[in-house]
Design brief:
With 129 residues, the protein is mainly alpha-helical. The chain has one domain. 71% of the residues lie in helices and 0% in strands. Helix 1 packs antiparallel against helix 2 and helix 3 runs antiparallel to helix 5. The termini are far apart.
Length: 129
């Protein structure tokens, strides 16, 4: 889903801004799923997996769809291509933005995981041995 990107910069600056948004979403969602996982005896696998999936859907799915669409869709006319490109913020930097969004989600979840490990919680409630 697209969120308002009109305020974002172009090129790598826009990619970094999108990556920061994705990192915050990943961090918050990992915190939510870590809390739910602690109550329901989940290991880190489902917590990380659901956090990554949901953060990617919320922050990167619109740009991922545009990237896929412009590479594989059959655009019937030049006017249709121009109309579709006009709807996209910074079509030249869409690949950079998608990469930064995916890396941002992973980084946000990693930071959340580090914080949860630092708190002394192993996340895995099963006994070993």
């Amino acid at each position: 889903m697209h969120y308002d990107q009109s305020w974002m910069g172009y090129g790598i600056i826009g990619g970094i801004e999108a990556g920061i948004i994705s990192a915050l979403a990943g961090l918050l969602l990992f915190g939510l799923f870590h809390w739910l996982g602690g109550r329901n005896d989940w290991s880190y696998g489902p917590q990380i997996g659901w956090s990554f999936l949901l953060a990617t859907v919320l922050t990167a799915s619109g740009d991922l769809w545009d990237l896929f669409y412009f590479n594989y869709a059959r655009l019937q006319s030049l006017q249709l291509l121009k109309a579709k490109l006009a709807q996209v913020h910074d079509p030249d930097g869409i690949g950079t933005r998608v990469l930064c969004e995916l890396l941002g989600v992973a980084l946000g979840i990693y930071i959340g995981w580090l914080c949860s490990r630092r708190g002394g919680d192993s996340g895995d409630k099963r006994e070993s041995g």
